[in-house]
């Protein structure tokens, strides 16, 4: 495989635009080149206009000091690194208190590269994951219930494509301007059009606003699209300077042959990115090599920071979107809680770029925010140690945790700091 300085095999299309002639059919089989994409991938295309976001509020120093004072009843060092997180949560929110309504927002979008054999899963798994999350079935929904985290699905053209006659979703989502169906394969064409990128970023911001306006005080943004780690790797390489072979991970657990295919896609897509955008031009990066879910996740993280709401970073897509969100909304990193280093070095590299230290070194992996859900109960426990909780005040009250019939008759129901 050639290095990043070597362009992919290209040939002129009928419109004179150079396009990759290295194409694959479903699951990596060879086929003839596709007709030219409707997206213009010429390097001379003007950059997209910037996204207009309100400024991110500065951390509340008074709330930070109050958090430390409030915790003074605990033995020194009792909470370890979790003490820093509690202080950060207080500074972001402007008040020190336990989380009451955490929400997981699963962003569902399909990626054209999933047809190239870069994942261990079939492309159809995207719709299955989104449907399971919406229906409250499957392992992610089960772990979310156990962690007291509510789940909402942001459909970016997946469920409407698989079942266009389905009744309106519970979350009354708006899909105007969003593509129905997969993005284009990023090794040969732009992932999205300009209007689609703008709509996806706006959709992510709107989802953050809706959940926060409904009382959410902690957000977890996640993706469920098959193949999402491939555009994530391209964007990671674009903003960090990593070589494609270093940025390309095993994702869903692919074998060597699939990894070679994936690394080639990352290489070719990165070549296109470097012709089209600087690493500070977030909308253009997302247009050329992202996807609707990554654009929406970027918007969601940025808007959460604007709204003084902590947001979890927990895997490669969320870490890459966090880097882009910080560039859209400088200071957004103050609202980011890095829960885990993830299972690949790309996540760690993105966190390092943001100056974030992960809370755990658990090598969690999985779609739809599973890694975050495994860590969050420890955060809720640290909050309980610092602030206490009354009955019915658990995270996600109103969920299965509110009426836990398995609670021991001897469980502690009144907070007493002397117990420590």
Automatic annotation (TrEMBL):
Alphabetical list of InterPro entries matching this protein: Nict_dMeBzImd_PRibTrfase, Nict_dMeBzImd_PRibTrfase_sf
A GO MF term: nicotinate-nucleotide-dimethylbenzimidazole phosphoribosyltransferase activity
Regions of compositional bias (Pro residues) in chain numbering: 47-58
Gene3D superfamilies noted in UniProt: 3.40.50.10210
Pfam families: DBI_PRT
Keywords linked to the UniProt accession: Glycosyltransferase, Transferase
UniProt feature, compositional bias: Acidic residues: 165-174
Region of interest (Disordered), residue spans: 1-72, 161-183
Biased composition regions of type Basic and acidic residues, renumbered to the chain: 29-44
Entry superkingdom: Bacteria
PANTHER family (alphabetical): NICOTINATE-NUCLEOTIDE--DIMETHYLBENZIMIDAZOLE PHOSPHORIBOSYLTRANSFERASE
The protein, known as: Nicotinate-nucleotide--dimethylbenzimidazole phosphoribosyltransferase
Highest classification ranks of the organism: Bacteria, Bacillati, Actinomycetota, Actinomycetes, Nakamurellales
């Amino acid at each position: 495989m050639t290095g990043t300085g070597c362009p992919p095999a290209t040939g002129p299309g009928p419109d004179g635009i150079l396009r990759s002639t290295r194409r694959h059919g479903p699951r990596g089989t060879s086929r003839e080149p596709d007709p030219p994409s409707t997206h213009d991938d010429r390097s001379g295309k003007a950059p997209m206009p910037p996204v207009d976001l309100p400024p991110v509020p500065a951390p509340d120093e008074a709330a930070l000091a109050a958090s430390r004072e409030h915790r003074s009843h605990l033995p020194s060092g009792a909470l370890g690194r979790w003490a820093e997180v509690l202080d950060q949560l207080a500074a972001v929110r402007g008040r020190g208190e336990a989380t009451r309504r955490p929400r997981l927002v699963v962003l569902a979008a399909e990626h054209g590269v999933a047809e190239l054999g870069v994942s261990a899963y079939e492309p159809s798994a995207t719709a299955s994951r989104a449907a399971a999350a919406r229906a409250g079935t499957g392992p992610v929904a089960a772990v979310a219930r156990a962690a007291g985290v509510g789940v909402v699905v942001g459909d970016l053209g997946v469920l409407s494509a698989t079942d266009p006659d389905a009744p309106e979703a519970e979350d009354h989502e708006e899909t105007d301007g969003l593509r129905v169906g997969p993005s284009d394969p990023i090794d040969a064409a732009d992932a999205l059009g300009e209007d689609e990128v703008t709509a996806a970023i706006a959709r992510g911001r709107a989802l953050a606003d809706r959940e926060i306006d409904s009382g959410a005080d902690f957000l977890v943004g996640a993706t469920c699209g098959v193949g999402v780690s491939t555009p994530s790797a391209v964007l990671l390489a674009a903003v960090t300077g990593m070589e494609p072979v270093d940025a390309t991970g095993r994702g869903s657990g692919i074998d060597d042959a699939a990894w070679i295919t994936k690394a080639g896609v990352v290489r070719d897509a990165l070549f296109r990115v470097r012709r089209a955008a600087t690493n500070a031009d977030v909308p253009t990066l997302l247009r050329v090599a992202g996807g609707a879910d990554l654009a929406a996740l970027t918007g969601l993280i940025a808007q959460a920071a604007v709204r003084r709401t902590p947001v979890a970073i927990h895997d490669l897509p969320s870490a890459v979107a966090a880097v882009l969100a910080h560039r859209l909304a400088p200071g957004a990193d103050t609202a980011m809680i890095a829960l885990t280093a993830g299972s690949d070095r790309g996540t760690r590299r993105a966190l390092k770029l943001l100056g974030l230290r992960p809370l755990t070194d658990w090598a969690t992996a999985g779609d739809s925010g599973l890694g975050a859900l495994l860590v969050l109960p420890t955060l809720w426990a640290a909050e309980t140690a610092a602030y206490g909780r009354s009955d019915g005040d658990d995270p996600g009250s109103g969920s299965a945790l509110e009426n836990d019939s398995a609670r021991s008759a001897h469980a502690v129901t009144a907070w007493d700091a002397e117990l420590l």
